[in-house]
Amino acid sequence: MRFRPHAAAILAGAAAVFGFSPLDFFPATLLALGVLIHLWVRAPSPRAAFLLGFLFGLGFFLAGVSWVYVSLNRFGAMPAPLAAFATLGFCAFLALFPATAGWAQARLRAPLAIPALWVLTEWLRGAILTGFPWLSVGYAAIDTPLAGFAPVGGVYLLSLLTIAAAGLLWLIAANRSRWPAAAGFAAIGIAGAVLQSVAWTAPSGNAVSVSLLQGNVPQSLKFDPSRYERTLATYARLADASGARLIVLPETAMPRFLDLVDAAFIGQLKAIAVRNGGDLLLGVPTRAQPDVYRNSVISLGVSPPAAYHKSHLVPFGEFVPPGFGWILGVLQIPLSDFSRGGTAQQPMAVAGERVALNICYEDAYGAEILRQLPAATLLVNVSNVAWFGDSLAPGQHLQIARMRALETGRMMLTATNTGITAAIAADGELLARLPQFIEGRLEVKAQGRTGVTPYVAFADGPALALSLLLLFFFARRAGSR
User: Does domain 202-452 have CATH number 3.60.110.10?
Assistant: First the structure.
């Protein structure tokens, strides 16, 4: 019956999410993609392939980014029916990208081009309308031998190889070119394992002591004026108990504009940093004019003052696209119309390191992190994922941060409001983390590194060029039959 392929596509899409954190079961993603390839190969027409890709994408995104509903309804005060409709619409839009890949391979009669088409549409998803690169399938491969390719070509190269591996498994299961497919599958794994042994970057200087603070301020109370003094006291106490040379507070740890924060409190934080012979990074909104404000991180301590202003803003959460001002009457999100920071900001010179700052989901854009490289010796992300409650989002965000460390060959430190606060090694290994929804301080030693991985040098270019080359080759080959 015709509904069976459609149901299989939706279920396979939902199952593919199991390969992402916090579930981390990569075989589920690999098998789910194999099911999609099987459905596409058997689809009777490009239109049918489009629908199957759309249904797979709908299941994939509804399961994987269900936390959008949590943000809109629970913390944005959007009525439940409207939040559900908005989440469904958003996921349906995202599903158009795998649907397009399915249609194109059927239209070109080139199933072997599926990995290339997937990567190209996945890249477009991360670029169109400010982009949403969340759940690129390459992230699911971070704990497999394929991770060795991350410093070479980034997450999109891992996506290409993941889809290719799924296709090879399908060929084996379908008894089509079984031995060549098995050899190809093994070769990809062996090559990745060999690349994992390559040291692309080298330690620079001595390790620095770092304290990552997690204030655990509930999102529902974060901007409550009655909670303000308690928030300041929490971070002052956590910072004062640290002897680290670098202390990092989360995104908007101070829930007021910097010019409205008591100067004595800022002085207190600076005195703590100076006492430790280092610096403190503070997440706080700043403004130059009453109606022009930015999501910022400032430095306090022995080094010259510096600031980083977030440049990639979240639509509707941090800025309102033209023509959508009415939505502010539905959502109740404080500070929802930030101005963008510049795209040529340089690493902060603090605590003897050159720190590349990124705020919230800026680290989901690998190529944008490279703007501060190779000058940076250390990566620091400050976030407030309390917006998504106890959902899949914090674990997925941590997985993204791990990929950025692996691509660049630098440690990544993440300081968050409610979790997951963590220290990640240059090879993507999770060194330490705090549990979610507790107040705490994570003390780690951070080793700065220098050097250039191929990904730092060429960004997403090689993965996209390879995808285009493969698409051209297989499409031309199919057309000549």
Answer: yes
